[in-house]
């Protein structure tokens, strides 16, 4: 979707909207690429706001004199000149058990408060709890959060840089290279930015939720709390997996920080797949996909392919360790959506991962 002015995806004025298990992606506007919430109430749960774009300000969510709650959700890869992720303008925002990652503010002037993740103006109130803010790009001084964010604990913030919490509390982990924040005795303050231990989003791993998985060394594992801003228990993660799990194997189950709960099964999961081509294929045109598969230790993994459709299985699939090359030219009878399912296997050819699916829509023009 594209808007000339505000709210490329959703414009909510004086209304009440609940967004659950949705993906809001690829919207654009002059301002507020994904959502504009104006004098209104907005609740986002178990959802993703991904790859939205604003020419001027606010790539993902603009909250103007409104109330916004975000729980178990992922906000990633949104872009704007200013305020790439979320801008709270005289409103109230509550963010809990969510991951805000890799949003990009592109402006290069000295306009203050252009954080990639979350920016609060002077009269806005933003509460964050059990959430990750990391890996953002901002040419100013505030890469991840800015302007007096109120922490309710258990947040993982990659780089505070020249910013400070209005309050910080138990369980917070944050990079503070300039040591500007007075550390809470039960928080962890780093003298540089934090390696949050998050794998980049790869479309074919989970094309539906567009999640960011934790790796097995992430400081987010077993470092969170399973309560939302209002004190209600959060029993599942963004994907619907049960919280908490005992990720660090110390015998105590504790929630992970962010939208995704790390599980033992994912230790041997397929972690990265590279696919440099578009997944939309026209009849008569050649398609070519190279899928490169790594395990959780970043080593090339053997692959076993299971396909729901014979045309994907039989038309030139070449397997070597860690790589599947799929090429062909679809015909009329191939019109439709086709799925290639791949799994990582160990040296004994035993499957050691969940399925990862490449979906190829074939159409006739």
Tell me what you see in this structure.
The chain is built from 1 helix and 34 strands. It has 365 residues and is an all-beta fold. It has 2 domains: 2-190; 281-363, Immunoglobulin-like (Sandwich). The strands form 6 sheets. An 8-stranded parallel β-sheet has the order 4-8-12-16-20-24-26-27, with no helix packed on it. Strands 3-7-11-15-19-23-25 form a 7-stranded parallel β-sheet, with no helix packed on it. It is globular and about 65 Å long. The chain starts with a strand and ends with a strand.
Keyword list:
1 helix, mainly beta, Immunoglobulin-like, seven-stranded parallel beta sheet, 365 residues
Blueprint (SSEs and pairs):
Elements: E1 2-6, E2 10-13, E3 16-20, E4 23-25, E5 28-31, E6 35-38, E7 41-45, E8 48-50, E9 53-57, E10 61-64, E11 67-71, E12 74-76, E13 79-82, E14 86-89, E15 92-96, E16 99-101, E17 104-105, E18 118-120, E19 125-129, E20 132-134, E21 137-138, E22 145-146, E23 149-151, E24 156-157, E25 165-167, E26 173-175, E27 188-190, E28 281-282, E29 287-292, E30 302-307, H1 310-314, E31 317-320, E32 323-328, E33 336-345, E34 356-363
